[in-house]
# Entry
Amino acid sequence: MTLQKEPTILVIFGGMGDLTWRKLAPALYNLLLGKRLPEHFAVMGLDMKNESPDVFRLRLRDGANSFCECGGVDEKTWNEFAPNLSYVSGDFANPATYTALNTQLEDHEKKWGSPANRIFYLATPPGIMETIVQGMGAAGLAKDKHRARIVVEKPFGHDLASAVALNGVLTTVFDETQIYRIDHYLGKETVQNILAFRFANALFEPTWDRRYIDHVQITVAEQVGVEHRGAYYEHAGALRDMIQNHLMQILTLIAMEPMVSFDANEIRNKKVDVLRAIRSISNEHVQEIAVRGQYGPGSMEDQRVPAYRSEPDVAQDSPMETFAALKLFVDNWRWQDVPFYLRTGKRLPTRASKVAIQFRPVPHQSFPTTAALAWQPNYLIIDIQPQEGILLRFQAKQPGSSLHLTPVDMHFSYQETFKSKSPEAYETLLADVISGDATLFMRADQVEASWEVLMPILTIWENSIQADFPNYQSGSWGPKAAEALIAKDGRSWLQPTPKDFQVGK
Ligand code: BG6
# Structure
């Protein structure tokens, strides 16, 4: 099915860069294979490098070939697509670049005999974004409110003030309706499914509040280290890189009120309500509710790996956190006093993103103590990746003459149920920009509200050195203080193993 008929030109600023190669090229190729691109569709790469269009085409082809889960590029399909790829080199700070770009865009439109939707994708380092937006504004490239769209990659600023400034520049040139801020977690099927699970089923919603839920845990664990991204990461850290966007977005989907309709602004309004209801953190409380960590050397799957401070482009005494854990509260009727524990880190034992919802114990334990020795509370575990699925843990009577309760799992697996692979996040998001659907993108107020919650932590962390860094070994579950953060409330992290969840360590 072709997604939409309107002719479209995708202009990628940073066309020769890593993101284009690794993420956009395979996403475009998958859309092409699925016949989900408009009939008239062109990609224009824009970069500072003085390359020929052929080099750009080869770079895209290589990206699609290396990263698409389609088993490699099909020559015939690619050769038909390749003539639609062109390249413009130019300095992003030079107005002539935008004039040349405009001429090329108009040439395409003349060839097609129709005006085209123009999608400007900023796959560039954050430092240059404002210059590009202003350059486009001056050249009149943003004028057509329906046809011109801009896609912005995270980080959306470095803190609240810079996010407000960036949004200010963006909204001076573009309308908010033209701006698509990408958080690729929102493109993941399992993240989108949180809304379907909550609001297309009558079963869970009546228990989805403070009366039945004891607490929520959101874990995004990564095995990878910072590796070649040291230069970026030294200015980011786990709080900015993961929590401000990905984990906070997951939290809003778990905590938001039911939407009235599946409309982009309606959903985004409901999400902003959650962010605004998060209890503000006072400076005195930062230490109580937030833990940071930095990985030392260690071993991952029998391979020795270096400390963060030994990665390329990282200072030997770097204060940057590669792990963060927080406890937040959402102060509203639904969630009053239910803790939301968030944690993320690099060089953890396994790659796993999961939301674990722990329900309260039954109000009265009718079974003899001996029967309930293995008793556990009910859990609902939303497995975002890599084992995509949902698990419900409840008690069952163990077969036998004596009465013994034991926890058992009911499991839904995407792979078993749907057979085909879920589309990659970038594929979904690119298709949405092409069709003009902003539901899965971040609005300015969402971004700012999320920064606002985290500012006290960022400020305190920036102004105080954590003397015990590195404070966790690569291949472990983070610093001891992260265990203590939850243990002092009488709870423990659920440890995701590759196959399942285990309670405690
Ligand atoms: C990115 C972060 O946004 O998300 C990376 O910048 C992180 O540091 C990545 O590794 C994780 O994404 P995923 O889809 O692999 O979980």
